[in-house]
Design brief:
With about 300 residues, this protein is an alpha/beta fold. Helices cover about 40% and strands about 25% of the residues. The protein has a single domain, classed as Rossmann fold. It contains 11 helices and 10 strands. It has a 6-stranded mixed β-sheet. Strands 2-1-4-5 form a 4-stranded antiparallel β-sheet, with helices on one face. Strand 9 and strand 10 form a beta hairpin. Helix 3 crosses helix 4 and helix 5 runs parallel beside helix 6. Bound molecules: adenosine-5'-triphosphate and magnesium ion. Magnesium ion binds next to helix 1.
Length: about 300
């Protein structure tokens, strides 16, 4: 039985992005078309320079298309003006960044509250929602910590809590586990998958690692700016498949006690941005961090 009602939440048609560098033209995304269903975990998988981040940034409205269409929730993203795009992002989109992009001067709780400030959620409710979300990612005992007082994995869990706290319909993530060790990577992947499946949220995640792509329902293989192939691992239009994956994600979600015990203050610290820059980037929904640029 197939549920034909599942919404095509992202539709990309003949998307093309050409960068001009002096006289040189770089075709980063070349006539790409695909669809992503509501509630699907979709991975853009490809080697370095294949155009994954460009494609993600085009979908998020951070980069402008050269030609083609990107329709999210029925809205043509490239046609939107900056004001409407900013409102659209606040309402429907969440972002997880490879380098966390947390604000150093703020505590974990304040960082997670941040997206709710823009949504004008009242202080008391904001605090409660952020606290609940931090408990869900296993950081109930780190709420007052600033980013520098947390391990890399804990910081990324704050990043996930921040991305998901406002329950956005779509979460974009560019190599969200790129700075984490293998064990923490798996915890973070299980966490993202569990939260998204539970709330029927759509994830679009960029990775170069086929092992991480196995968390996805749909893998879009990107090669030299084009789509090599699309693999559907779970057909979520099948209600039985849909239900089974929710149950699997619940079972695989890391236990809070395990997450707490994995806190290791000796883990390597990562570079952080200044607060002003972080605020600007958060507002813009940009994830072009210096880490990613130098990959
Ligand atoms: N702002 C830019 N100006 C010019 N060329 C760019 C720009 N951004 C990306 N490119 C080029 O576009 C191509 C695709 O880059 P993109 O960042 O999308 O790759 P990627 O698949 O995300 O790679 P990685 O895994 O290394 O992050 C590359 O050849 C890159 O050099
Ligand atoms: Mg990239």
């Amino acid at each position: 039985m197939v549920n034909k009602e599942v919404e095509k939440v992202i539709v990309v048609r003949n998307a093309k992005k050409v960068y001009r560098m002096g006289t040189e033209q770089i075709v980063a995304v070349n006539d790409v078309s695909f669809e992503i269903l509501k509630g699907e975990f979709c991975c853009l998988l490809g080697t370095s320079g294949s155009g994954k981040s460009t494609l993600l940034n085009l979908m998020a409205g951070i980069e402008k298309l050269t030609s083609g269409q990107i329709i999210i929730k029925g809205k043509n993203i490239p046609k939107m003006n900056e004001t409407n795009l900013a409102k659209f992002r606040q309402r429907y989109l969440g972002f997880v960044f490879q380098s966390y992009n947390l604000m150093n001067s703020m505590t974990a709780l304040e960082n997670v509250e941040f997206p709710l400030v823009f949504k004008r959620v009242r202080t008391k409710k904001r605090k409660k929602l952020a606290q609940d979300m931090l408990v869900q990612v296993g950081l109930g005992n780190r709420m007052g910590h600033k980013p520098k007082e947390m391990s890399g994995g804990q910081q990324q869990r704050v990043g996930i809590a921040r991305a998901f706290v406002a329950k956005p319909e779509i979460v974009f993530a560019d190599e969200p586990t790129g700075n984490l060790d293998t064990k923490t990577t798996m915890e973070v992947m299980n966490l993202i998958q569990a939260i998204a499946r539970e709330n029927n949220q759509t994830i679009v995640m960029v990775t170069h690692d086929p092992r991480l792509a196995s968390y996805a329902d749909r893998i879009i293989h990107v090669l030299d700016g084009e789509i090599e192939k699309v693999e559907v691992l779970h057909d979520i239009t099948d209600p039985e498949v849909y239900q089974r994956r929710v149950e699997e994600a619940r079972a695989a979600a890391p236990k809070l006690s395990e997450l707490e015990s994995s806190a290791d203050p000796k883990k390597k610290k990562h570079g952080h941005k200044g607060k002003k820059k972080a605020v600007q980037e958060m507002k813009a929904g940009s994830e072009q961090s210096s880490d990613q640029k130098t990959q």
